[in-house]
Amino acid sequence: MHCPFCRHPDSRVVDSRTSEDGSSIRRRRQCPNCMRRFTTMEHTSLAVIKRSGVSEEFSRQKVISGVRKACQGRPVGEDDLAKLAQRVEEKIRSRGIAEIDADEVGLAILEPLRELDQVAFLRFASVYQGFESLEDFEAAIASLRAERDAEPAGAAAGTAPSEVPEQNS
Ligand SMILES: [Zn+2]
Asked: Measured in angstroms, how far is the CA atom of residue 37 from the centroid of ligand 1?
């Protein structure tokens, strides 16, 4: 693997550890040329099957570009998008599957996006859940309201909570 600093074509593994859930291995590497250290992650391959039947490797970047449009004009930063994409990837990988339909990736985005920004969520959901009428929007908004009203006051918007317990669905 290339050194990301000096592009030296080789590197030495100085430490390896398996993640808690056993789904990935993290390696610390050192470049023998510039001596700097960097980290690589090894995951099993996760293929996304598109509607056309073509499969491609899962990419957080694709998740981000898919969500970015829905977030236009919203107070959502690049950091938020990166965290969202990470949560989506973790959620999908925790299922222990080797491939997933592109539509299911879209669905996996909905929950973290709803927590991040409700307007962006509605925009995104209208596409991924195929909203066809005002009633579809009304139903989605009613469920957002019900959820908001169920939450204790003060726990509202602002920074997205970073330590949300994973819920099994
Ligand atoms: Zn180097």
From this structure: 8
pLDDT in tens, 103-140: 899 999 999 999 999 999 999 999 888 889 999 999 99
Sign of the CA dihedral running 102, 44, 24, 35: negative
Q: Find where tokens 């999908």 sit.
A: 92
Cα 13 to middle of ligand 1, angstroms: 13
Token look-up 């293929």 returns 47
**What is the value of pTM for the model shown?**
0.69
Cα of 34 to ligand 1 centre, how many Å?
4
Give me the DSSP letters along 55-91.
EEE--HHHHHHHHHGGGTTSS--HHHHHHHHHHHHHH
Ligand 1 centroid distance, CA of 41 (Å):
18
The crossing angle, in degrees rounded to 10, of helices 102-116 and 60-68 is 60
Give per-residue pLDDT as tens, 15-31.
999 887 777 899 999 99
Q: What is d(CA 163, CA 32) in angstroms, rounded to the nearest whole number?
A: 37
Q: Token digits for 29?
A: 């590497």
